[in-house]
Design a protein that fits this description.
178 residues, mainly alpha, 66% helix
C-alpha cells in the first residue's frame, strides 16, 4: 500500500501558475465556443434553430445568436447530447449541471429565452426561461447577501463623510490662468 508521500510525487504548481493555466484554458474554451457558433451560423443545425430560431439578419442579433449557438453546441458536444431536445433537462451530475446552467445563462443573456423574442421551439424555451429566471434571482440574492455582508460601520461612516462633501465638485476643472 502506498503512503501519502508516495502518492503525491507530482510537483504542485504555484497559485499564480494555476491561475495562468486556468485563464488560458478558459480562453481556449471561449474560442472553441465562438468557432462552434460560427459553424452553426453556416450549417443551421435543427437543434439550435428549434430553440433560437433562424439566424437573424441584423449584426448585433447575429452575434448574440452565434454566442448562444456556440454555447449550445459546446454543451451538446461535451456531454454527447443527442435527440430532439436542444440541451435537455437539468442534469444531476454536478459538473454537467454547472455546464448546463452556464449554457442556459448564455442563451438567456443573449435574449433568446424572453417571451416572444425568439421564434424557436416554444415548449423548451418556456422551460429554460423559467429556469433562467430562477438562476438569475438566486444569483441576485447571493450578490445582495455578499454586499450586505461586506458593509461595516466603518464603510457607513465613510459614506456619510462623502455625502457631506458632495457639493464639492472635484471632477470639474477649475483651471489655472483662465
Amino acid at each position: 500500500m502506498l503512503n501519502r508521500s508516495e502518492m503525491n510525487t507530482e510537483p504542485r504548481p504555484s497559485d499564480s501558475a494555476s491561475i495562468s493555466h486556468w485563464s488560458r484554458m478558459e480562453g481556449v474554451l471561449r474560442q472553441y465556443e465562438y468557432r462552434l457558433g460560427r459553424a452553426a451560423a453556416y450549417t443551421s443545425p435543427g437543434n439550435v434553430t428549434d430553440l433560437l430560431g433562424p439566424l437573424p439578419d441584423r449584426l448585433a442579433a447575429t452575434e448574440r445568436w452565434q454566442a448562444a449557438a456556440g454555447a449550445i453546441e459546446a454543451y451538446r458536444s461535451r456531454w454527447n447530447v443527442t435527440g430532439t431536445a436542444t440541451i435537455g433537462s437539468e442534469p444531476t451530475d454536478p459538473e454537467q449541471q454547472e455546464h448546463w446552467r452556464t449554457t442556459v445563462a448564455t442563451v438567456g443573456a443573449a435574449g433568446f429565452l424572453n417571451d416572444g423574442r425568439s421564434p424557436g421551439n416554444e415548449s423548451e424555451r418556456e422551460g429554460l426561461a423559467s429556469r433562467w429566471e430562477a438562476l438569475r434571482q438566486a444569483d441576485l440574492a447571493r450578490h445582495e447577501m455578499a454586499v450586505d455582508h461586506t458593509l461595516s460601520d466603518d464603510d457607513d461612516d465613510r459614506h456619510r463623510r462623502r455625502s457631506r462633501d458632495r457639493d464639492n465638485d472635484l471632477s470639474r476643472d477649475v483651471g489655472f490662468g483662465r
